[in-house]
Amino acid sequence: MRKALALVISALACQVPTASAEYGLGAPIAASALKRWDIDIAPDGHGLPAGSGTVAAGKQVFAAKCAACHGQTGEGGIGDPLVGGAGSLTNVKPQKTIGSYWPYATTLFDYIRRAMPYNAPQSLTADEVYALSAYLLHLNGIVPEQARLDAKSLPKVRMPNRGGFVPDPRPGAM
């Protein structure tokens, strides 16, 4: 992913001045400005920031910033359910939750970091995102109540549906 981004940046750097001169649109982007948008997390954990979080801390963050949409214990509300659904993927109406569907714990971190809370995406600190990840993984029975997650431990979390996806044959894919 990062190699692809570097190629796009390189290509844009070569093309922008021409496009800018030809069409009068755009301006070259500084690497420092682009870095703010380079926040993707790979399944193997590449790109995870420094920080850590516990299940207990995640419970507090969830109550303050997530429960209004996802219910007090992630059962769902105006937002999707985040827990439950184990064994439901072969049902007519599968329940795609963190514990039943998601293949990588790092994907959970990436999604929370980018998109949550709904009313203020990208407003959570790295510690809050680690804590929320720990809490939600605990609610789904994946990590113990004493879990502390960080950039080293999160990629090691084995999700129940890790083998439920067709392997990606592309070089470097997980």
Automatic annotation (TrEMBL):
Alphabetical list of InterPro entries matching this protein: Cyt_c-like_dom, Cyt_c-like_dom_sf, Cytochrome_c-type_DH
Q: What SUPFAM superfamilies does the annotation carry?
A: Cytochrome c
Q: Does the keyword Heme apply?
A: yes
Q: Which domain of life is it from?
A: Bacteria
Q: Which UniProt keywords apply?
A: Heme, Iron, Metal-binding, Signal
Please name the source species.
Trinickia symbiotica
Give the signal peptide, or none.
Answer: 1-21
- The Cytochrome c domain covers which part of the protein? 53-140
Supply one GO molecular-function term.
electron transfer activity
Q: What is this protein called?
A: Cytochrome c
Does the keyword Signal belong to this entry?
yes
